[in-house]
Amino acid sequence: MLSAQERAHIAQVWDLIAGHEALFGAELLRRLFTVYPSTKVYFRHLGDQPDEVQLLNHGQRMLQAVGVAVQYVDNLRAVLSPLADLHAQVLRVDPTNFPLVIQCFQVVLASHLQDEFTVEMQASWDKFLTGMAVVLTEKYR
Amino acid sequence: MRNKRPRSEAAARTCFWPIRLTSKLPDTMVHFTTEEKAAVASLWAKVNVEVVGSESLARLLIVYPWTQRLFDSFGNLYSESAIMGNPKVKAHGRKVLNSFGNATKHMDDLKGTFTDLSELHCDKLHVDPENFRLLGNMILIVLATHFSKEFTPQIQAAWQKLTNAVANALAHKYH
Residues near A14 by Cβ (< 8 Å), separated by ≥ 6? Predict the structure, then answer.
């Protein structure tokens, strides 16, 4: 589904994130909770006002999962299966929230990469992250 | 282990195709705080309308290619570089962003401000209001590329609220 060019864009951007998953993840969550406060209902275990450490920890977990998806982009269903189970059976995050995370992810990438976040990068990452969201919600029923 | 709880109705929308970026808000007046208005105004003062407008529209047409259906008369949209360089795309992008500029001056009455444009987009242009939400999201991403760290979460929140409210105002007169 992803062209060679799209995979290259994804790998290129991931190179910048790799090793800094916690920082990027924390920023993603900070933006998500600020711009879309209703998403906090899914993160009650982080408390009412999650502190920096919690954002870094949880952000790291989320971005590490993205890293796995980047590595196994041809086999998302298999590799994300445990996470898909988790979302379907335990977390039950309403599917309409995934585009909100994706939007914030794009803003994080855009603000860090600036000019380098070309439209081709944006298109590739939008497609890739949407693909991840589809897999994570596929077992909902 | 099967989950026995009642499924959310929205879980029914787990189809492949684009999930709505924001849910449709009920028909209530949007209220912007003083801080939100300040956040919007401070950034707007530095926005290059020509550049941000044209880039936002170009990104919409490229990232979500089905939106090109609305622009048959725009000529060459066959490649990314064609779209980015298309003069009609640039002109229309600038026009749309100027309209946003108007929105920043009437944040207390967006529905009134966009009444005519709403009727136009429904009756003459036949644009799915989802496109307004998508374009609003593109504007935010372009602003982030331009303003980087200055595009703080709080500023992002104020602008996201504005673009959502403008999208709703533009959809308000649809029938």
Answer: A66, A67, A70
